[in-house]
Amino acid sequence: MKSVSNSKIARGPYGSRASFGFTLVEAIVVIAIVAMLAGIVIPSVSKVRTKSLLVQCASNQRQIGLALQLYANDNEGIYPPTTHSVSPFRLNESWLYELDEYFTDSIDTIRICPADPEERRQRILDRNSTSYVLNDLVFDDVNYRFPRRIPNPAQTHILFILSEDRTPNVTRDHIHGGEWTNWISALNDIEPDRHRTGNRSSDRTKGSAPYLFADGHVEIISASDFKDKFAEGVNPAEVPL
Ligand SMILES: [Zn+2]
Fold it and tell me: Distance, CA 85 to ligand 1 centroid (Å)?
C-alpha cells in the first residue's frame, strides 16, 4: 500500500503527459517575457556604457588640466601654445605634444574622447589631431596665457570637445571663442551633447559633456544648461572678470 502511494508522488504533476514539448501558447508567453526583459536590460546596458565613457572623458580632461598646471610651473608661468600661434613648421610644439611628458596615460588615450564614434577616433589618431580643443580666448591671449592672471579660474572654461561636424586635422586643437555669438555658432566648434545615448536631438540639448576649468576641476554640464548660458547673454568661452 505504501509503495503504491510513493510511486504516485514520484511521478509528479507531469507524470501523465505524453510529451515535454511547449504548446503554442506557452511558446508565445516565453517569447513575450524574453522580449520584455530585453526591453528592460538593453537600455540600461547602454546607459551604463554612456556613463563609463563619460568617466573616462572626465579623467582625460583632468589629466590635461594637471599637465597644464605642471607645464606652466616649469615654463615661467605660461601655458603651452595652440597651433594658432606656433609656426606651421613646428606643429609638434603645440600644447598636446608639450604636455606629453606630464601625462601618466598614453597621449593617444588622452587626446581622444572615448565617446567619439570609432571611425572618427581612428581618423583623429591618423591625422595627429585631438578630440579636445583649447579655449583660444585664454591660450592665445597675451594676458590670460599666464594662468595666474585669470581672475576667476574656477569659472573659466579652458577646454571643450571638438564638434563632430569639424573634420579633425593637425591644426584643429583650439576653438575661436570670439565667434561664439550664440548657441548655434558654438555648435560649429564644439559638441556639448557628446555624451548621450543614441543620436543627436534636433535642438542638440539631449546629453552632456565634461568641461575642464582653469583651476583644474572638471564639471559635467548638460547640453541644455550649456545652451541656457547663451540665452542669459553669456558666452561661456569668455573669461569671466
Ligand atoms: Zn585659430
Answer: 8
